[in-house]
TrEMBL record:
Name this polypeptide is given: Protein YIF1
Source superkingdom: Eukaryota
InterPro entries: Yif1_fam
Subcellular location: Endoplasmic reticulum membrane; Golgi apparatus membrane
Keyword Transmembrane helix in annotation: yes
Keywords, in A-Z order: Endoplasmic reticulum, Golgi apparatus, Membrane, Protein transport, Transmembrane, Transmembrane helix, Transport
Positions of transmembrane segments: 164-185, 257-274, 294-311
Compositionally skewed regions (Polar residues) per UniProt: 30-40
Species this protein is from: Fistulifera solaris (Oleaginous diatom)
């Protein structure tokens, strides 16, 4: 009988020799497997050891959304910011096409929110300490002619440019500070936040409309949103007043400290508006309308009245 195993054992061997050769061959194979645990006798192919198998990924090889390289790319902050910007642009463009006039409004408002940290810091300093500033005129980016209004620089390039970021943020901060003040006195209710917000917004709206009427009578072209921006800087002073009053109330000097702070912030707001309007109202106005100098002084004095009216001192 022929033997298809180890070629050194021929078919001429007897049954005993054949059995002895077969057993020796099996024993040698077993010893080799024990010496080499990565050896697979069934397939005659070397396999990875247990330590090597633990380092191999258990997922199938191929493109996958859970690929670490892909996850690392999506985890990059620059890539995330780019995707968020593209998503927001897609949503806003879609909404702008659906709602009539929304696209024009977004383009207009975008210039009032083009701010950075440097601009905000400079603006806060200019509003609270206007006596230290020497430049008040806005920077002109493009001038087409006397019959066309000039194109001004964005707030990021000009600290004298009006913005709506600081007025809106300070308004929200002031409303929250009022709620904290009411809560500290044990008089907080859910109606405090909408009441304070409505009072501030209606007061500012009436102020802007009155200024707009004066500009219309003078035939002075001033943007409506510019007036909302200039009159909204008063909320910064209101926040400072309330913070000073709340901190001084721990020493039983809350009301006195509030009025000391009010004298400074109200005077600063009036001076800020005086210099701003004096450099933004055209020098040539209608002869039949009110005097330019009188309008500037009235607008500046109105800041004292509005800050006094909107200020919350009931629970200081």
């Amino acid at each position: 009988m022929a033997y298809y195993g180890n070629p050194q054992y021929s078919s001429n061997a007897g049954d005993g020799n054949h059995f002895y050769a077969q057993s020796a061959y099996n024993n040698s194979t077993t010893s080799q497997q024990q010496q080499h645990p990565a050896y697979n006798s069934s397939s005659w192919q070397p396999q990875a050891t247990q330590q090597q198998q633990s380092t191999y990924p258990s997922q199938p090889i191929g493109p996958s959304i859970f690929n670490p390289s892909v996850a690392g790319a999506f985890g990059n902050q620059a890539v995330q910011k780019m995707m968020m910007d593209q998503g927001q642009a897609f949503v806003l463009e879609g909404m702008a096409k659906i709602v009539p006039g929304l696209e024009v409004s977004m383009i207009t408002l975008r210039a009032y929110f083009a701010v950075d940290n440097q601009y905000v810091l400079k603006k806060i300093k200019k509003v609270l300490f206007p006596f230290l500033s020497r430049t008040w005129s806005r920077q002109i980016k493009q001038y087409a002619g006397p019959d066309t209004p000039p194109l001004y620089e964005l707030p990021t390039m000009d600290e004298n440019a009006p913005d709506l970021y600081l007025p809106s943020m300070t308004l929200i901060t002031y409303v929250l500070l009022c709620a904290i003040c009411y809560g500290g006195a044990g008089q907080f209710s859910p109606e405090v936040i909408p009441d304070v917000t409505t009072k501030c917004f209606l007061t500012q709206t009436l102020e802007v409309l009155a200024i707009r009427v004066g500009f219309y009578m003078m035939q002075a072209p001033v943007a409506f949103l510019d007036l909302f921006s200039y009159t909204g800087y008063k909320y910064l002073g209101l926040c400072v007043n309330l913070l000073v009053g709340m901190m001084a109330s721990q020493l039983e000097y809350g009301t006195k400290a509030y009025y000391v702070s009010f004298c400074w912030t109200a005077t600063a707001a009036a001076y800020f508006m005086l210099k701003t309007m004096a450099n933004n109202i055209p020098l040539e106005t209608s002869s039949s309308g009110p005097k330019r100098e009188l309008v500037v002084v009235v607008i500046a004095a109105a800041q004292l009245a509005t800050i006094w009216f909107v200020g919350q001192t009931k629970f200081l």
